[in-house]
Design brief:
The chain contains 19 helices and 15 strands. By secondary structure, the protein is α/β, with parallel strands linked by helices. It folds into five domains: about 35 residues; about 45 residues; about 170 residues, 2-Layer Sandwich (Nucleotidyltransferase, domain 5); about 70 residues, SH3 type barrels, CATH 2.30.30; about 80 residues, no CATH class. The strands form four sheets. Strands 1, 2, 3, 4, 7 and 8 form a six-stranded mixed β-sheet that branches. The chain has a four-stranded antiparallel β-sheet with strand order 9-12-13-14, covered by helices on one side. Helix 2 crosses helix 3, helix 15 runs parallel beside helix 17 and helix 18 crosses helix 19.
């Protein structure tokens, strides 16, 4: 601010015909200062700066801790201090905050582009270290944003491989009830094998996924992250408002709270479109492509054969599946890095388990055996009758079992009858004969023999063989000398 005397001098010299440049040189001030003085019809006067709110002064140490140590953003700090009694205005708070930090700006001007409804979604992910169950765990949060409505969907996982990306995308499609025409992704190995300029070599499995959902893949420009700005920017408020300074009892609670935060965002007016995303989505939803009837099943899925006792193996453990699938092939998929999902060959989800962190475990869901148990007798006498009715020639095995397993013969008989549901009768008799020869009467021995007969293997497709057409070809014998 210039003094009263300087203001008078500037206006006087200008009235004498002096140029703005000449006045600035003579008084040692800038040309802009001269211009402002000439435009001002009133002399400059001192204005006292606004005083800090006393409540903020008392909370200064806590605000500094949140700002500099915890690195909370302004809106998060304001929310925190309001919870402990701050009742002042937002403007007073932000004025106070500006005194505690030096604002830096290094952004470059970019052209903002908008997309029509249902046309595009943007997908990305970020890793965070989160306190879950008293332990620090690395959690991946995938972000899917519909570019038109700005509706967001977050998906948490303990892994960030390609299958996790596919699962996050599928979960987002089902969350919004449809698929956009194109998906904008970065150049990660999960999607892109190589890129030279505008020439992109896509990952074939990703193309297979896109083909299933009829969606066009688009890779953002290299070293131009703002191409995908609608996704990458939301990770910052997610970290500030949801991740930082919080602890969770379990991974399930983390997911629940993440979805609550997501729902809150649906009803917050977006600064760019000046509308709530949930309201704008009403227009966009009808433009989304309908979902296919079945989920994506890759040509490289993991297949397993279900054992006679309704179990499949994965990573050193065994997991139960519903008993009607015993002896059949199923395919499995790791979900969110924590759950094992089991699907029938038609793509129907038939079982879900939490993956055990230990090895050599059998993880059993008792409901998977309910239908089977109803079909079997409960008392020892009825079980013996059922066994002889099915295996009348194996009476000697039954007698040995009753003697050797005196206190739990019913259990062994019941389990053996379960095995008989899925194995051939002749295979059962072979196992009984071996048990007699080794004088070992137990369901574990019988099961072991039967499982050797049916090792886990991938199901191979069957082909119909057609006879080759016959051709009458006559050649001179000298023709065959070249093959000798």
């Amino acid at each position: 601010m210039i003094s009263m005397e300087a203001w008078v001098t500037i206006r006087y010299l200008r009235a004498q015909g002096r140029s703005i440049k000449g006045i600035a040189r003579e008084l040692g001030i800038s040309k802009n200062t001269v211009r402002r003085a000439l435009k001002a019809n009133k002399p400059p006067h001192y204005q006292r700066p606004p005083r800090d709110n006393p409540q903020l002064i008392k909370l200064k140490e806590q605000i500094e801790e949140m700002l500099f140590e915890k690195e909370f953003i302004g809106t998060r700090i304001l929310k925190e201090i309001q919870q402990i009694g701050y009742t002042g205005s937002k403007s007073a708070f932000y004025r106070f905050l500006s005194k505690l930090k030096a604002e830096k700006g290094n952004g470059k001007a970019v052209e903002r582009f908008e997309t029509p409804p249902g046309h595009q979604a943007q997908f990305d992910w970020s890793a965070y270290t989160v306190m879950i169950g008293g332990k620090l765990k690395r959690v991946i949060i995938f972000s899917f944003i519909l570019s038109y409505s700005r509706r967001k969907h977050f998906f948490a996982s303990l892994r960030e491989d390609q299958l996790s990306c596919f699962e996050a995308l599928e979960d987002s499609f089902h969350h919004f009830g449809g698929v956009p025409k194109e998906i904008l992704v970065d150049n990660a190995a999960q999607f892109v094998i190589s890129r030279v300029g505008h020439i992109i070599k896509w990952n074939p499995r990703f193309l297979e996924f896109c083909g299933h959902y009829r969606i066009k893949p688009v890779a953002c420009k290299v070293k131009r992250p703002k191409t995908k700005g609608k996704v990458e920017r939301p990770f910052y408020p997610l970290e500030q408002h949801f991740i930082k300074g919080r602890e969770f009892e379990s991974f399930e609670e983390f997911i629940k709270k993440l979805h609550e935060y997501e729902r809150e965002l649906d009803y917050v007016t977006h600064s760019t479109i000046s509308l709530r995303p949930i309201d704008r989505f009403l227009k966009e939803s009808s433009f989304l492509i309908p979902l296919p009837e079945t989920p994506f099943i890759s040509t490289k899925e993991i297949f397993r054969k279900v054992t006679s006792d309704c179990l499949i193996s994965y990573d050193g453990n065994r997991y139960s599946v519903p008993w009607p699938y015993a002896g059949k092939h199923v395919w499995i998929r790791v979900s969110q890095g924590r759950y094992l999902k089991v699907f029938s060959q038609k793509g129907v989800l038939i079982a879900t388990h939490t993956i055990s962190e230990n090895k050599g475990m059998s993880i059993i869901n008792q409901k998977h055996y309910e239908g089977l148990r109803k079909r079997l007798p409960r008392t020892k006498k009825l079980l013996e009758e059922a066994f002889l009715e099915k295996f009348s020639e194996a009476r000697s095995f039954l007698e040995g079992l009753v003697v050797q397993q005196k206190f739990n013969a019913s259990y062994h008989l019941r389990e053996i009858l379960k095995l008989a549901e899925v194995y051939k009768k002749e295979d059962m008799h072979k196992a009984f004969s071996l048990a007699i020869s080794y004088n070992t009467y137990s369901v574990n021995f019988i099961r072991g023999i039967l499982e050797k007969e049916g090792e886990l293997e991938e199901q191979r497709p069957t082909f119909t063989l057609r006879p080759l057409p016959r051709l009458k070809i006559k050649r001179e014998l000298g023709f065959y000398n070249q093959f000798l």
